[in-house]
Amino acid sequence: MEGNKTVNLILKYIGIDKQTELDTFVNDVSERDFMEFSSREEVKAFFIDYLADFYNNNSRSDIDNIRAYTGIAFRRFNSVLRGVWNYDTNGLLTDEMKNKYLDYADNFSECIERSPTLSSNIKTYRGVSLDSFKDYGISSLEDLKNLENKYYYESGFTSTSLVRDKSFFNRELEYHEFCNIEIEYLIPGESNDGIPLINDDLSYSKVQSEYLINKGSLSKIIDVKVNPDGKLAHMKAVLIPEKMWNIIYNKNDSLDSSKTI
Q: Domain extents for the chain?
């Protein structure tokens, strides 16, 4: 399997020595203990100090823009970032609108970059369909096994849930998309690559206990299992902090596939 062209570019870009360093880091992270949350109350208690720091680093306007993303806007922003604009769903896309969405995404990304690092390693969960892997040559759940021990790049923002049963796994979304794949993210304490959207200030849908991972994220898939009946799949991935792999990482100049690919 040739792999995804963006991932291939990143690995070429960082070089063999850095990739070896990342592989070692992933192995270390996979052996760690992780916080798992069973309720919104546990999530809120864990992130009290974190959110206090986050609010100090962002303006009221920044906070309002983050909340706006959690409405109907998220689909359009991510469609532009992923280069998969659906005209039936999203309507017309002009150059002016595209630039507006990209500017918003950059500003939103900078807000996330100003978040503090986590105080512990945490697990989050995401439910997706096979469409999320079509750029990797995946056409069936069995094919997903080809991604084990491979890197996975997400150009858009990645919505995950801090409480497992709040994710969209094993559910049918609007437009008849069935999320038959669960991704369990292992997020190391060194990371500041996401933000918890868990209160009314930050989200229109706090019941999801969402942890939103920044755009342009890189993970390594360390385990893939398909249920015996072949209808559901479970994947485990380690999120790699961008500051570890993107050697030009700063708020103005990052490896963004919407700009470089």
A: 5-58+115-246
pLDDT digits 0-9 by tens, 27-38: 999 999 999 999
Q: Does domain 5-58+115-246 have CATH number 1.10.645.10?
A: no
pLDDT tens readout for residues 57-97 = 999 999 999 998 898 778 888 888 888 777 777 778 888 98
3-state secondary structure the chain: CCCCHHHHHHHHHHHHHHHHHHHHHHHHHHCCCCECECCHHHHHHHCHHHHHHHHHHCCHHHHHHHHHHHHHHHHHHHHHHHCCCCHHHHCCCCHHHHHHHHHHHHHHHHHHHCCCCCCCCEEEEEEECHHHHHHHCCCCCHHHHHHCCEEEEECCCEEEECEHHHCCCCCECHHHCECCEEEEEEECCCCCCEEEECCCCCCCCHHHCEEEECCCEEEEEEEEEECCCCCCEEEEEEEECHHHHCCCCCCCCCCCHHHHC
Q: What is the pTM of this model?
A: 0.91
The per-residue pLDDT for range 13-54, each reduced to its tens digit, is 899 999 999 999 999 999 999 999 999 999 999 999 999 999
Instruction: Say how far apart CA 26 and CA 162 lie, in whole Å.
Output: 21
pLDDT in tens, 201-236: 999 999 999 999 999 999 999 999 999 999 999 999
242: its two tokens? 């961008």
CB 214 within 8 A of CB 256: no
